[in-house]
Write a structure and sequence with these properties.
- The protein has 228 residues and is mainly alpha-helical.
- It contains 9 helices and 2 strands, in the order H-E-E-H-H-H-H-H-H-H-H.
- The protein has a two-stranded antiparallel ribbon with strand order 1-2.
Length: 228
């Protein structure tokens, strides 16, 4: 239950870390973050106003046309740079989540001789729970195909992976499928190779029930109150 909340918030902090590095101020909400007031917007606005003033003051028709063409290139260049910054912010969340999960998996691989005996220490359990940060990708994949089956629009619950794929002109499902398959392989490895057989069923059952309960409590009860 706690990991469902922690995973959601650390994911948003992945977005926030990139946004703040790029000069944005940010607001954290229970299931999202909002970047605003970027540092680079002010000099752009000032340059835009100055160029428009110069165009208005120019009397030579030919020169004015060239100045307008330069202005259009300037605006187009800014839009492209801004879109790339938005892509980096969107990418920050999934990278944080998958990086955390990968660190957990690496920890388990380094401690293989310990958990292979069937007795897990607290470091092993830490690796297990950290590696399960990858489960977000499985959840996203399930939601993605559920939308396809129900013929729901991609604009509904648009995941970060779909946004990234569309920006890169890839198939909208590509990243969701690739990361979902990787996450499934990691989950199978952790459950059937690391978690002791005697508690495997109760662990998986408790994990599913706890994760769903934590998701519901945070997204529908606590989250909207604590971080509206």
């Amino acid at each position: 239950m706690f990991l469902a909340v922690i995973g959601t918030q650390t994911h948003e902090w992945g977005h926030i870390a990139i946004a703040r590095y790029l000069g944005y101020k940010t607001q954290l909400h229970y299931a999202s973050m909002h970047p605003y007031n970027p540092r680079h917007l002010k000099p752009y606005s000032e340059e835009l106003i100055n160029r428009k003033s110069e165009i208005s003051a120019e009397t030579d028709t030919m020169k004015k046309a060239l100045m307008r063409e330069d202005l259009n290139k300037f605006v187009s260049s800014f839009v492209k740079k801004n879109r790339f910054k938005e892509l980096l912010i969107v990418t920050g969340g999934p990278i944080q989540t998958m990086l955390t999960g990968t660190l957990g998996l690496i920890l388990l691989l380094f401690r293989r001789k310990f958990w292979s005996t069937g007795v897990l220490k607290w470091l092993d359990w830490l690796g297990v729970f950290l590696s399960f940060f990858w489960l977000r990708q499985i959840f996203n994949l399930i939601i993605h195909f559920a939308k396809k089956l129900l013929r729901m629009s991609d604009s509904i619950i648009l995941s970060d992976e779909i946004k990234i794929a569309k920006y890169m002109n890839w198939h909208p499902s590509s990243l969701s499928i690739i990361t979902g398959i990787i996450a499934l392989l990691i989950a199978v490895f952790v459950v059937f190779k690391v978690v002791p057989r005697g508690i495997r069923f109760s662990f998986v059952t408790g994990g599913i029930l706890g994760g769903l309960s934590g998701f519901y409590l945070w997204f529908y009860i606590l989250g909207p109150v604590l971080l509206p």
